[in-house]
Design goal:
Blueprint lengths: L19 H15 L1 H4 L2 E7 L4 E6 L4 E5 L23 H18 L2 H7 L7 E2 L2 E2 L1 H11 L9 E10 L4 E8 L6 E10 L4 E9 L7 E2 L1
Parallel strand pairs: 4-9
Antiparallel strand pairs: 1-2, 1-6, 2-3, 4-5, 6-7, 7-8, 8-9, 9-10
Helix pairs in contact: 1-3, 3-4
Length: 212
Amino acid sequence: MQPPPVPSSHQAPDMRPPRGIDLLGRAFFRLLREKPLEAAEVRSLRAHRASRSVAAIFSDGRAQATSDAPGENSCEAWHATDILALTGLPPTAKLLGVALQWLRADVVGDFEAHSALLSRKDSVEMFGAKGFESVLRFKQSFLVRSEDFDNYVVDAVLDVDAPSHTVVASFSCLIPGKEGTGTDVITVDPADFKVYRVRALRHTGADVQAST
């Protein structure tokens, strides 16, 4: 699949600020590594790309800001971490970690990550596609895989709903013809921590409607 023309407003990768999803992921996986029990209490995350920082709100209402800095503790490879191989993690921490990795796969068109994170159960469904192979084909039909173009901007996790195994995140779609903002609702199977359903609500753009 040929990527669409990159809008002139898009800067080269080495000139633009860090991706919001990478700021979110690095901040959460650092916390996951250093304080796993505290990571399980995160209920929302918001990235500030200009200042390279992330604000987290915890279940007790406490807020915490962290700065994104390079170095051995930066968790640059957070998106490639097999979170299910990490022992002793609370379920809520796994839930948010998997959801963040799924969101990044959408942003950059990482179909291998989609395949690894997606449930293989017959019940998997999103946006009218049912079943593992159908969902992957759906993703590959419109997401762009390119170093010069991101499909979405994801700067915030709005809620981690642990009882329903669901994470809610906001997005801005950059795909030509599909531009607009919205909310993703990602549900993870608690039995194996694989994504099995994603719903979206479009706030602006050509398809301002609820999708399942």
